[in-house]
Structure formats: structure tokens, C-alpha cells
Amino acid sequence: MSSGNEPDQRPTDEELAAMSREELLRLGGKLDGVEIVEYEDPWPVKGTKAEKRAERVVALWFLLAAVAGVAFFVALIWWPWQYEPPSNSDGYFWYSLYTPVLGITLGVAVLAISVGVLVYSKKFIPAEVSVQQRSDNMGKGSPELDRKTFVAHLADAGERSTIGRRSMIKRSAGLGAGVLGLGAVALPVASFIKNPWADANGPDSLAHTGWQPEFPGQIVYMRRHTGDFGEVSLVRPEDLDAGGMETVFPFRESERDDHDALVHALKRSDNPVMLIRLRPDDAEQVIKRKGQEDFNYGDYYAYTKICSHVGCPTSLYEQQTNRILCPCHQSQFNALEYAKPIFGPATRALAQLPITVHSDGYLIARHDFIEPIGPGYWERKS
């Protein structure tokens, strides 16, 4: 048996240029020590009904991918995506289907492309059985020779797969892949369709949250979520024990009998705030942020629950160390030093909500956050 390390007689450049693809194919196999044992054509008789039926099946899968890709694109842009309260049964039904429709249409598109490729490989790619001797070719070889024989192998594989003469499959595959690619491009682009700065001072801009008063002098209370969306449970200072923490949401008296507004306040992503009551000994060690020295009320401090790293909820508070923890990527913030990051990937302190107590004894927000909450974006100055 040959080891494959014996020197072979190489063709000259002139002989190499004059070789046909079949000759280059045989030469490449010989140089690589490859012996083709079997290379069965799946359709030895061309143009049969079975062959055409198999071609239509492959094309059908690619067309299904194209249809699903179009459906994904249409749903992404035009499906009702804005929140609708459960009280609006018709609007809530269609809103609740937004995410499932995106997942199903995109999943079907990817699945159909994959199945189409698998079916084509099974039905039209020749079943090749080859044996190759292990060889390092004596560490030598001609780059031009390798290139030509490799290209010959690729061209032969393409011809034997019959893809060149199957225009139906090529067109349907191109359509399916193209539409799927369009959906992949539309997914990140869709987030730019709505201009977040169309109303820079409005309650829905990136610079403001639900804690912003709707008009000067409006009182925004701190409300706990009891599990009943319609219940209004306001927070008094005596409700928290020293070292305790509670998640609170904004509430306005104008919302008391408005079930939709009460639900929206609990569901809005930038509304949750972590209200912390420090222990007296810990409160004496607090280092306050410049310009925010009066944002606390005694031992009570309020920080956004939206992590400054990528927007996960900083939902954990470690009483013994006074650390606020983000479970997503393990960022840690020091509650005794204006929620400054001390561990993990976060690089900015959590935004602090200025609070006080109203004359009726309930905790309220003095005004909205003075900086955008959450992760960084291009308008942020720090």
C-alpha cells in the first residue's frame, strides 16, 4: 500500500493548462490519494416524473420559507404591537399575539429553508463513497496545481448535483433566502421606525419615565403592587423596617378609577423603583452624589430597578452588605455610595429618584429622574 509520500510525476504548466475538467478531477484525486469507490447518480434516467416531483417538493419548501419570511416582515411592521389593556378584549387579543406571530413566522421560514436544503441534498446530491490514503504529500505541492484540481472538484460536484439545470429550485431558494434575509435586516431596523425624540419632553421619550408629573404641581405617589392591578396601596415611611426594600410604582389620583391607567403604570418597563430603608448605622456612612445630596428622605433612598448595563432588573438587595445586585450579569451597586457600581460589567451608577413625604403621610417623588435610566445610548453625555 502506498503511503502517499512517494513523489509523483507532476504535469508541466502547459500540460496542466490543456487538461479537461475530467482529467483534472482524476489528477486531483490521484494526488490526494483518493479512490472513488462509488458515485451513484440519484437520477440515472433524466426527466422522469419522480425526478420532477422531487424538484417540486424542494421548491415548495423554499417557497414556504419565502411566504413565512414575508409574513414575518409584515407582522413586524404592521401588526398591532402597542399595549392594550385586558378590558379591551378585541385589541388585547391581537396585541397578545404579536410576539407569538413573530416567533412562528420566523421559525417557519428558517425551518423551511433548512428542510429544503436537506431534501435537495438527499434527492439530488450523488451518494459518494471514497477512500483516501493518509498523506502529507511529502510537504510539497504546486499552488497552481492545487487550485486547478480543487476548482475541478467543485465544478464537478456542482454539475453532478444537477443544480445548474434546476431553475425552479434555484429561483425558489433565492426567493426564500432573500426574503428571510430581508426579515433579518428589518428586525434591527424596525426599532428605528419610531423616533424616541419626536417629543423630547414628553412622558414617552427616553429622557423621562412614568414618574414625570403630567403638569406642574401634580403629586406622584409611591404605590406597591399587591397582585391586584386595580388596587391602590400607597407606601408610608413606617411600612418599611430598617434594612428593608420594596419595589414601588408611580400613582396619580387621576388614575384611581382608571383601570387601564393603573395596569399600565405597573407594566411600563421604566417605572419600577427600588425603595430602600437603610439601617441607622449604615445611613451615617452614606456618600451622596454631587448635586443629589437632598434626593433621599432620611434613611429612605430610591433607585431605578433598570440596570445601567443592559437594562435587566436589579431586583436583589443584600441587607448585610448594602449591595444592590443584578442577577443577569452579576453587576453589584453600593447602596451606601449613590448606587455606584463596584463589581461586574456595569459602569454607571443607578439613577436615583428624588423622594419626600407628602402632607398626608405618604411617600412621593419630588420629580422625575434627572438623568436617563438604563443602559447607555448615543445621546447620553456620561
UniProtKB/TrEMBL annotation:
Cell location: Cell membrane
Example of a GO cellular component annotation carried by this entry: plasma membrane
Gene3D superfamilies, sorted: Rieske [2Fe-2S] iron-sulphur domain (2.102.10.10)
Domain Rieske: 270-364
Entries under InterPro entries matching the protein: QcrA_N, Rieske_2Fe-2S, Rieske_2Fe-2S_sf, Rieske_Fe-S_prot
Keyword Magnesium annotated: no
One GO MF term: monooxygenase activity
Pfam families: QcrA_N, Rieske
Topology of the protein relative to the lipid bilayer: Multi-pass membrane protein
Segments forming a coiled coil: none
Keywords from the UniProt entry: 2Fe-2S, Cell membrane, Disulfide bond, Electron transport, Iron, Iron-sulfur, Membrane, Metal-binding, Oxidoreductase, Respiratory chain, Transmembrane, Transmembrane helix, Transport
Residue ranges crossing the lipid bilayer per the database entry: 58-81, 93-120, 173-193
Function of the protein: Iron-sulfur subunit of the cytochrome bc1 complex, an essential component of the respiratory electron transport chain required for ATP synthesis. The bc1 complex catalyzes the oxidation of menaquinol and the reduction of cytochrome c in the respiratory chain. The bc1 complex operates through a Q-cycle mechanism that couples electron transfer to generation of the proton gradient that drives ATP synthesis.
Family: Belongs to the Rieske iron-sulfur protein family.
Protein name stated in the entry: Cytochrome bc1 complex Rieske iron-sulfur subunit
Organism: Prauserella cavernicola
